[in-house]
Prior knowledge:
By secondary structure, this protein is of the alpha+beta class. It has helices at about 1-10, 20-30, 55-65, 65-75, 80-95, 95-100, 110-125, 135-150, 160-180, 185-215, 230-235, 450-465, 510-535, 545-565, 580-600, 610-630, and strands at about 250-255, 265, 270-275, 275-280, 285, 295-300, 320-325, 330, 345-350, 360-370, 380-390, 395-400, 410-415, 425-435, 490-495, 505. Strands 2, 3, 4, 5, 8, 9, 12 and 13 form an 8-stranded antiparallel sheet that branches.
Amino acid sequence: MGRFGAQYINGTFYHDLHPVAGKLLIGLSEYVSGHNGSFTYTSGAEYPPHINYVFQRASMAVIGSLIVPFAYRTCRFLGFGRAAATMGASFVLLDNALCVLSRFILLDPILFCFIAMALMGYAGFARHRHQAFSAVWWQWLAFTGLSLGLAISTKWIGAFVVALVGLCTIEELAILYSDRKTSVLTQIKHWIARVVCLICIPLLVYLISFQIHFALLRSRGTGDYKMPSQFQSLQRNNVVSRQPHDVAIGSQITIRSHLPGFGLIYANETHRFPDNADELVAAGMPGKQANNWWEIVSGAAKKGNDTPSVRFIADGDILLLRHVGTKRYLRTGNAKPHNQGWDRRVVAAGNTTAPSAWDFWRVHIVDDVSPRPSGRLYAVTTRIQLTNKISGCLLTATPAQLPKWGRDMSELICSQKNTSMAEGTLWNVEQVRDKRFKNANYQKLVKRQWLRDTVWINREMARSNNRLVPDPDRYKVIESSAWSWPFLIYPMRMGAWKDDSIKYYEIGNPILWWASAICCIFVYPAQIAYMLVCHRRKCSSWKPAEIRQFWDVTKLLWGGWFTHYVPFFFFGRVLYIHHVLPSLYFGLLLLAFEIQCAMRWYMPARAEWHVAIVIIAISGYVFYLFSPLTFGWDKPIKELAHLQWLPTWNLVTDPHLVL
């Protein structure tokens, strides 16, 4: 993640699958440490002398360590005794997996910190629920909203803590609604307070983080090709910003879809349809390549000439698009697409001497954002639709991917829904090559639309996430499945595993992981079932206030564990063991609470601290045993073979690796 921080310093635009708040903090730590942005943290490269990597990693370690005091404060807000709160904070402190991630420049420690902040904020707010609309009540409610915004602005996994707080808020408002002593005006005020603090503030934080992101990254980089043409035209040193604005018959152009992820229309001689070798695949390809270029050829009698040598393109004009590299025309016909069987296939076919009637396209100018005269096609600023002259179908970009014979490109079709204004039917000229025209100043033609760009980049992030699909035919040492996480079945190697390399192993404190898993999966559900049976039979020995206290604590802690763990069973993307760590945080605090309940039920009060100290000592000893793998082991790993407690651990040898 260090390279993203460097790009904030040197201002070059990048694309990543995560939101930007955490990377902004990484960039801030690099800037404070004196980094000038010249080193891009290439994997395996040595740090140059001017890089203060110790400060940068220490910054992440400090952020990661904040979850320990947050855990203690959360426990106290939830009514834990000092012994149990100390246990909960100690469990978080003595987990090896949480510790080892905080030693690296990663987003995860930042995410854990913000999730812990959100839980602490909501626990503080719940503690003061009876002081409605007081200063401290507003303080904790607003703090919760800020923390939720920071969490989801770091990684989308932060949405799970948003869901947790949302569910608890719905329960609170339902209780208020059922309370006849609460006036309608008071209920409306409660609703407004929560909408402002728990919806508006997180949304504002999310949007502001992206506005800062766009403000800092003003130069061409590796990721701006995923952004709209208008965005690219305002980036320094971008090729789109250094080209003509005018487009005419004879111009060579690239054509971008307004469907995020589709990219530019692409064709080459290699990729052909398997049922017709004469038809080249014309499809969507992200990035700028030589095979993206098409030449505009007149398809009708001349009209509207500005000069004898230049004929601009007006609304309703008929034209052909000839691929510059293959000399084939963009064509549709009666053949069906690969994915959409009810529309028409689009291909690159024919030759320069004999174009087909299916090669003619009518231009419909939808709108133009530039201050220049309307009614003409311009590069970047004009949105158009292309309708086939014969069939009347609309040239349409789709998110569906072609198979390997189509290079996994996005399928291009001609849709019979010719009245549609869907984004897949909208196009613009992104680049133009024409020596007849001078380069334009796009700063005067285009205005930044940061809200549009924020929506666009988030959709691109979602596509990048969805493409991280595991390969079922290939074993990867760092991947794991959600079912294996609670009982620490498959820890993860972090980096090289040679005898002379420094080896880090993402393995948690086994005692704490197993105990919290048993608590969350078996003990707590059994307790709830037992309490429901007792309540139904009216044989419960618990007082209503005690039941309410138990529920208020466990709905947050077990609910947090559930909402941060169970959704991963429904994810189709690649998963790693560190994805379980937010749910582990909730599970560790719930474990401390259950231990407190057991002590208060079965032991005298004076024994609480003694039991807590013993449990903390055992946890600390296990943490110490595995600490060489947490802080780095530079000797042969065989010397730590005694730490392989389960046969599935790939500590010494990988039982799943086929050599």
